[in-house]
Amino acid sequence: MNWFKKSSKKEEHTLPQVLEYLKKSGDFLDFQNPQSPTPYWISYFRSLVDAEIIHRDILPYLNKTTIKKIEELKAALPIENVMVTSDLETIRQMMLSGCVLIRLNEKDQQGVLVKAEMNKVREISIPEEEFSVVGPKESFVESITTNLNLIRKRLPVPELEIREFKLGKLSKTRVAVIYISGIANEENINTALQRVGEIEIHQILDSSYVSQLISDNDNSPFPQLIDTERPDRVAGVLSEGSIVILVDGSPHALIGPTTLVKFFSALEDYFLNWQLASVLRILRLIAVSFSILITPIYVAVLNYHYELIPKDLMATLISSRDFVPLPPFLEALVLELTIELLREAGARLPTKVGQTIGIVGGIVIGTASVEAGLTSNVMLIIVALAALASFTTPVYKMSNAIRLIRFPFLVLAELWGMIGISIAFIFLMGHLLRLTSFGRPYLEPIYPPRLEDLKDAFVRLPFKTQPKRPVQLQSQDTVKFSEKAAKEKKDIDE
Amino acid sequence: MKVTVKEQFLISPYLAFFIVHSMQIGVGVMGFQRYVATYTEQDSWLTVMMGGAAVHLVIWMMYKMLNKEQGDILSIHETAYGKWIGRLLTILFIIYLIAMGITVLRTFLEVLQVWMFTLMKTWVFTFVYLIAAYHIIAGGFRSVVGVCFLGVVVPFYLNFTFLAPLEFSNVRNLFPILDHSIKDFIVAMKPMTLSYLGFETLLVFYPFFKKPETSQKWFHYGNLFTVVLYFYLMLITLVYYTPDHLRRTIWATISMWKIIRFPFVERFEYIGLATWTIVILPNICLAFWAASRMAKRMFNVTQKKSLIFILVFAMIVSPMFDDRTSIEKLNMMVSQFGFYFNFGYIPLLFFFHYFMSKVRNKA
Question: What is this structure's pTM?
Fold first, then answer.
């Protein structure tokens, strides 16, 4: 099949041939401008180029003077991104990314490339997934340039380094690895650069592509990189020594290395006072364990360990289950699946319809199934609470993982009761112990235990007590600010 | 002979605290009180402390040898006896480690079969449990130590549940104090020290510490913590049970859970036993890890292969012990071996190693 390749190469020998090839696309323009004193040729992709730039910044200047040489043409234009070249590959690439090619004659081998790309971007809006009542209301958009600007604005230091890659054979997506040199650990930086650099894929549509391609263990249900839409969160973790990856076309930045507990910290925790923030964090962790464990415990208790429940409480449970024909496990499974269905339907439908479906589905199906005697109302309460609790996770991908791991717990609870739940816990524990993020332990600061990092894990202690960067990130410069000034104490009446 | 381990697999010395504690707490805790109290009755709390002191001494000896050797039991044996006898004795040690893992798993399962699921099939549970163990051990020593750490931290709340029996206990059960002869104490020391077994895995994982010498302090602290815990349990058992009642109670610790009562939970032993599934995990993981590690050191096989071999062996053997007497026999055998190994063989080895290393240095 060699001849096939050759024939496509053949066309690239001369510039006119290249243009001829590009003309096959309907949105490619190549014409001579007859009005100007110099009859130059201009060619570009209509769909990539901003017509306003051409009419305002290019054409008027070319129509003013007569131009003999291509250098004069370059000098005539008031734009700094002007390039004289005869390299066919560059010309092709640049035109495909929004450049205008200007030649003096139709058969010229040389042309001037002027950047006139169309920049249609979404306006910066408020964060939707990670909304916070207090704090900044900006969120990332699809354009990587805007996103980088949002980060740079918050960290105006020359040490903030950005390494760019072009990934994807077809999509040629810009991917930027961002870190603060001198703070981020060299090993982490190298891991990130190496993994991103080695990506082999035809197309990158979103940062989650990158996240899946570079995570340490892609068989794990747990996300190993935090994805966030908040530039303030990104600026915060950069200054701690994390590494951030931005992908053009994606409003989500990736943060690594990270740990399990960080997925349960919302950015708002840092905007509130530390007591409230700590309580909220603990509440979230309790909610997650509740969400995973409560249905399995219910099934285990009703199946095997009814002695566990005191007599009075047992009476309530029994009377609510009195007419239910299904065993607890099936009852739980049916309800869990119903809730998952509602959630999935709500996520797929447009917002307004989705809300209605959620309410109608939740209330109508719930009440009706209890009244029909298919499920007990205690079970309904438990499952609904568990679903509600799983929504408290600030990072969406983590709440998906929690949604998933509930089911093995449920099955093992059906098999061996409480012991089954313990066994499931052991599997989970073993899995989490082995998991890493950019080669750093995922379960830190629980294991390996690090007291310094526990100050900002299950609780968030005051800023003054944390003058050092997290041990987890192995930062080169461990000191955030001087401890002495922060800890200055005064005696009474002094 | 120095054994070196790659840097990224090393662990911090302070984790020795959790390793030794998690290894010592296993199935023994559930019913050690009866065996000790047979001999020293109300004075058993003293036996607990004496046993702990003896263990401290043995740990000290082990560290003396290991510090000199900077290796593991294989290097000690080879210095002491030369290559062939040394290897033969190490094989015995490996068999002991495997037997220890099997014993813990089988005994715990027996408790489950008695207390919760009478009809539970031995092999099914063993199979699932060993898959979990394989998953953890395959993560290397770091994840095994992680299990040791979590195996201490996660079930820690259980220690507070033992306060509940105090409501119904009587301090007068402890009197008269010190009413037994020294001979009684010495006899009672044996069943007591059995509950402390497990720390001998140190002879395998010593080279995995960063600056191994510094871990000795933490190892002793860990043992001390076990002593305190046993002391606490023994004291509560003694004031709660009358001597007669204790003699008839096989699993004194579990029976104490029965009286805990919350507005939403009764019969706490179900929750206690479920948590205990996590407590015994370090025992099994570390024992099998150590056995497979020694097999790797000796026979030039990959640790993965030796581990799978050991787990399959455990899988086949466990269901063979299918009644109380055979399990009791297995327990007796392993603990007898462990007792003589730690308190008879280690001191002997200590002196022998001391002389032999002198001799070899001169030569």
Answer: 0.91
